[in-house]
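Exercise 7b. Backbone tokens:
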């Protein structure tokens, strides 16, 4: 899938050229050739610290919150917030295909 399709509807400060992306991940252990790596800062691990290594592993591009001075970076305000819409776009918006049914009432919902 093209990077431009994956970033559709996402507020991007700075983007990289339109490349083919084969996978999307925020787990540095799962990055492979053609992956889009989303750098997310956690309590213990910050994906920004391994961004250069992910490019060396063959990542097609990286999503970051600040300029790291690297090629192939896409700068956004909050990488954690854009991870979900990026995945949704990559997998062709699967939530759009779901049917939602709500059950209301006082009794009997547990056994329905």
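Sequence design result:
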């Amino acid at each position: 899938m093209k990077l431009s399709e994956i970033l559709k509807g996402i507020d991007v400060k700075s983007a990289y050229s339109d490349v083919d992306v084969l996978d999307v991940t925020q787990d540095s252990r799962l990055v492979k050739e053609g992956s889009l790596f989303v750098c997310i800062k956690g309590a213990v691990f910050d994906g920004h610290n391994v961004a250069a290594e992910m490019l060396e592993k063959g990542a097609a591009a990286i999503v970051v919150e600040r300029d790291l001075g690297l090629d192939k970076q896409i700068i956004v305000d909050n990488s954690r917030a854009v991870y979900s819409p990026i995945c949704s776009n990559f997998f062709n918006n699967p939530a759009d295909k779901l049917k939602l049914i709500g059950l209301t009432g006082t009794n009997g919902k547990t056994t329905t």
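Instructor comment: The chain has a mean pLDDT of 93. DSSP finds three helices and four strands in the chain.
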